[in-house]
Write a structure and sequence with these properties.
There is one protein chain. This protein has 261 residues and is α/β, with parallel strands linked by helices. It is 43% helix and 13% strand. It has a single domain, classed as 3-Layer(aba) Sandwich (Rossmann fold), CATH 3.40.50. It contains 8 helices and 7 strands; from the N terminus they run H-E-H-E-H-E-H-E-H-E-H-E-H-H-E. A 7-stranded parallel sheet has the order 3-2-1-4-5-6-7, with helices on both faces. The longest helix has 29 residues. The mean pLDDT is 96.
Length: 261
């Protein structure tokens, strides 16, 4: 039987990771956790100044670099993949976190809002993964696969009922199913694909919801609270480490039990 080295089971030290949407919210929680765990991290976000400022702040904790990009277009995905390939020979971990939301009443919901959410939340995951596959496969081995971690949402598991954001939940359900499809295809190439479905965490996207409904949300959670940064960093580190190397095609709710309540 292969020995279990507990001291390195959850290690990602020395690995190279890209976290999209890494300048704030859940992406920032994951990026910071990876850096503190010893990974070399690249963060990407649409706003150049913000992305670079956050990377500089994170670099005080370890190695972090900024590659600004707009991932709502295929051209933006190609730009990011090309910029990373110019800096790194391989990529161990890809976190597809960049996302968008659009709230409006059912009768007024615009096509532009629908398209923005679907392009950023679903289309970008597929095409960025496609463009980065050469780097991921260079990092991949049978014993230690390259990892893709897609950020979905519990709104893709259960229907949300507090705000009207009609494109968001279907987009996240699509992320979960795309995760399964990619896992099936990429597993034989030693690249695992899993998803995390966060519940309520502090972010710009949830700012309105938490400002108006935090008590109601916490009341539906068996643990009675919203998520903390360590909750998100912990599950991402698990999926990226040796401990998570045999998981493939799963979606993990990180929601304190809201989905089962």
């Amino acid at each position: 039987m292969e020995p279990i080295h507990v001291e390195t089971l959850f290690s990602i030290k020395g690995k190279t990771a890209l976290v999209t949407g890494g300048s704030r919210g859940i992406g920032l929680m994951i990026a910071r956790g990876f850096i503190e765990a010893g990974a070399r991290v690249y963060i990407s976000s649409r706003k150049k100044e913000t992305c670079e400022a956050v990377a500089a702040e994170l670099a005080k904790l370890g190695e972090c670099h900024a590659i600004p990009a707009d991932l709502s277009t295929v051209a933006g995905c190609e730009t990011l993949a090309g910029a990373l390939a110019a800096k790194e020979p391989k990529l161990d971990i890809l976190v597809n976190n960049a996302g968008a939301a659009w709230g409006a009443k059912l009768e007024d919901y615009p096509e532009a809002g629908w398209d923005k959410v679907m392009d950023t939340n679903v289309k970008a995951i597929f095409f960025l993964t496609q463009k980065l596959l050469p780097l991921l496969e260079k990092a991949a081995t049978r014993e230690d696969p390259a990892r893709i971690i897609n950020i979905g949402s519990i709104d893709g598991i259960k229907a949300p009922n507090l705000i009207e954001n009609y494109a968001y939940a279907p987009s996240k359900a699509a992320v979960h199913h795309l995760t399964r499809a990619l896992a099936l295809k990429l597993g034989p190439r030693h690249v695992t694909v899993n998803a995390v479905a966060p519940g309520p965490f502090e972010s710009k996207m949830t700012e309105f919801m938490l400002a108006n409904f935090q008590k109601e949300i916490e009341g539906t959670c068996p643990l009675g609270r919203i998520g903390a940064p360590g909750d998100m960093a912990g599950v991402a580190i698990y999926l990226a480490s040796r401990a998570g190397s045999y998981l493939n095609g799963v979606t993990i709710p990180v929601d304190g039990g809201i989905c089962i309540a």
